[in-house]
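In response to a reviewer's request, we include the raw inputs and outputs for one of the modeled complexes. The two entities were modeled together in a single run.
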Amino acid sequence: MMQFVIPTAIPTRTIDAPNFSTSRFRAEREADWIAFDFLLTKLEKKGAKALTSDELLQLPLLYRATLSSLSIARATSLDKALLDHLEALSIRGYFLVYGVRESRWNRLRRFFLYDWPAAVRSVWKETLIIALVILLGALTSYSLVSSNPEWYFNFVDEEMSGGRDPRATAEYLQTTLGHGKAAAEKGESGLHVFATYLFTHNSRVSILSFALGFAFGVPTLMLEYYQGIGLGAMMAVFSAKGLGFDFGGWLFIHGTTELFAAALSGAAGLRIGTAVVFPGARGRLQAASAAGRTAGKVMVGVILMLFAAGLLEGFGRQLIADTMLRYAIGTLMLLFWLAYYYIPRREDVT
Amino acid sequence: MTAAANAKQRAAKAKKIRPFVTPEGVDLELRIASAGLRFGALLVDLILIALALFLFSLFMLWVGLASRSDVTVVVWMLGAFVLRTFWFVGFELGQRAATPGKRLMGIRVVARDGGRLTADAVVARNLIRELELFLPLMMLGAGASEDMVSGWIMLAGVLWSLTLSLFLLFNRDRMRMGDLIAGTWVVMAQRVKLDADIAVDAAGDAMLFTETELAVYGIFELQELEQVLRGRDPRAMREVADAIRAKIGRAIAEEDDVFLLSYYRQLKARLERKLLFGKRREDKYASD
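The model returned the following structure tokens for the whole complex.
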């Protein structure tokens, strides 16, 4: 049986002026709210370091006092201004008290040591699939262009190729690889501008390929396949003129990093796409958000990788003309990334 | 206003509220931010980005002219890229989880599961923004640059990409595509100043009302009256005072503010007393 517990009246008061009044409640608790508001403002503006140890101890107490005031006010008060204030204050307090995160430095350290490689490791299946798709695209266009050079013009934009097409002479093609006299005359000016341009452009393309993933991954697969097609067509043109090995070096020096990054961005997109289609035991929304968080980490890594690729492409490739050295650097980079991502390590405890 | 309209308004308000129970067991009742506020915040942010980019460009131009080196071009390109990509990420990782535009509109980003907002979620939701913002523009650009694409195909492309961008209009929780994937919500987080308690004013007991005179109104009317009193607009006070006088049949005998304050105070005391005994009268149409 429920029973109303009517608070025993304070003897001096009559019924007309009830001993519990919301005004009295407010007068008694108001100091706590003001103190809590003050602490929150300080915390927001200057961070946890600005609080003294006394204030830090006060924070959870004041937070709980405010929440309890909110409960009481909701049940007893009809003062809208008071209710709104307490609600806003509690929400603000909740996210500050429970949202306290580790320091920026710690977070950065954890990202590079554990989170980034772990996220990349966890999308290994998708990475493999995307790598195969790129390879398939390259093989398709390579075989088509090799058997009939006319196909080339279906695959590669005239402006993009800059004269690197089946009609070009072997000498011209060689210059585009950074060998011979013409290339040397072009000099080094503007290299860094070129590198930066490549970096920003490639980053946007990968962000797109990631972001398109939620459409069940189909646009991502198409985009990656298309990347492979352009690659294969170029390869066919150069190898037909006996420059396949040199072209490989030209591509390899930054290509291992850049294509790896492209494959990872596609894998991140694909992870989201598959999570939406096959959510498994979880709800679709929950699966999508879990996948999105993993993919978000991978994407930060992809942008960093593309930055490295841009540097290699803009500087390394233009300054280093020796094909063997180009291969060596490319291989080294590939080994570095593989080791960084896939060598097992002890997981972070936190 | 009728009883039905009142109920409808309350229902519309309740539809935006999402239960959010803290570990202490208090429901914070988060309110989902409206699409209009979201759009306003985005506009403010875009304007600020454009402004920052403009100032940055001017500065780099000045540096470039002075130093005659093309390193400034590199710095400019990198700076523009970082500004565009990480403006939203940087601000949303801060303590208030809101960009300047969002702060202005009084909204913030919150993890949907009630946990803390992690960096990867913020990154994911903002990289998707790239797509939502620029895909429709790209479709327009691609359609305009290629003559072979007919107007209809272009229209179809733009419409398709707009359904992605306007995804938040098609779900109850006003989630963008990016919110969906990052597991976040955008909720109201405006600050409310603690206004003075008008129920303890000295003028509150200037006149006394009978039980029947107080019985005509409910909580909704009480809170509207509170707003008028806090607004302190003499014309509004006169109108409301006249309406109440007509309703309870009192002649004009005293100042409007004295009358309203006394009435407010006694009505509030009466309704709160009832509230303590478990009776919540939503508005004047509800039974007393």
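As requested, we also summarize the result in words. The first strand of chain B starts at residue 17 and ends at 18. The two ends of chain B are 19 Å apart (CA to CA).
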